[in-house]
Structure formats: structure tokens, C-alpha cells
Amino acid sequence: MAKYDTQRPYAASYLIFRRGSQVAFVLRQHTSWMNDHYGLVSGKVESGESFTQAAIREAAEEAGVTLTPEQLTPVLVCHRNEPDENMVWVDMVYEVTDWSGELINAEPHMHAALDWLELDNLPDNVIPSVAAMLTAYQAGQTYLDYGWN
Questions:
Q1: Coil, helix or strand at residue 13
Q2: How many domains does one find in the chain?
Q3: pLDDT digits over 21-64, tens only?
Q4: Over the chain, what is the mean pLDDT?
């Protein structure tokens, strides 16, 4: 009988909220990872959740907006290796151009701000894996391996 590795990758949903040429980013603070770096609205898929359900939940929790599944357009899957953390992730990235409500920093205890940044002129302090995802997205790629040798 074949033996299987019982370590499974984590799953996360990422949201590219687009407003013309701008994308919404949260500036991380007071967390255990990548403080003072910009990331997308995102989060781990919880037990019993789909990628879509997690994306809708994270949009409400982090940005204070309501989404329906029809407002989520899957644009990229990323198989991400984070060797410094001994973690592997499968990330589903959605583009969102329509939502209900106004995007706000709904988690000020975890984010210093929610800012709209120009996609073609991002600052140096974007989380490296997120920058790679956005580069792939802009190039029209639908799959990205990140962090693998």
C-alpha cells in the first residue's frame, strides 16, 4: 500500500479589488507576519469553507463590503512555498470590480490603512508573493508557482 504525506497545503483566498487602474491594499500592522507591508484583502480558507465563501467572508471582515459569488472572477491560482515558515499554500485569486458598500479598513487592529494604489506603480513594501501574483495577473497568467526551487 502506498504511503501518503499527511501534510496538506493551506488554502487562502485573495481579492483584487479594482477601481480603474487602482487596486485596494491593506497595510499590515500588529500581526505576526509582514508588518509594514501592503497586501491584498485575503485570508485562510477555514474548515468547511470553499475558496468563494472565504473570499466573501474576508471581504466583509477586512474591507467592510458585501460580495456575492457572481461578483468574484477567478483570475489566478498560485501554488506558494514559504520555506521560511515551513508552509505550503494554494491560493485562489479573484478580481472584483463590483461590490456593495464602501471599502474601509474594517480591521484597524491588524491593518494601519486600506489604500488604493496604482497597479503599475506599486511601492517596494508590497508582500513579495503578492507582488508576484499581481505581476502574473497583469501578464494574463492563470497559474503561478511561487517559492519553489
A1: strand
A2: 1
A3: 999 999 999 888 899 999 999 999 999 999 999 999 999 999 99
A4: 94
DSSP codes joined into one string, 26-73: EEE-SSSS-TT-EE-EEEEPPTT--HHHHHHHHHHHHH--B--GGG-E
**Is 34 inside a domain boundary?**
yes
| Displacement of CA 33 from its chain's centroid (Å) | 14
Amino acid at the residue 56:
I
On whether residue 38 sits in a domain, the answer given is yes
Residue position matching grid coordinates 458585501 = 66
Q: Integer distance in angstroms from the first to the last C-alpha of the chain? A: 30
Q: For residue 88, is pLDDT > 60?
A: yes
Quick check: is 4 in a domain? no
To the nearest 10°, the Cα dihedral for 40, 46, 48, 52?
Answer: 0
Supply the pTM of this predicted model: 0.94
Inside any domain, residue 1 = no
Print the domain residue range for 53: 10-146
pLDDT tens-digit readout, 98-107: 999 999 999 9
Q: Kindly report the number of other CB atoms within 10 A of residue 100's CB atom.
A: 10
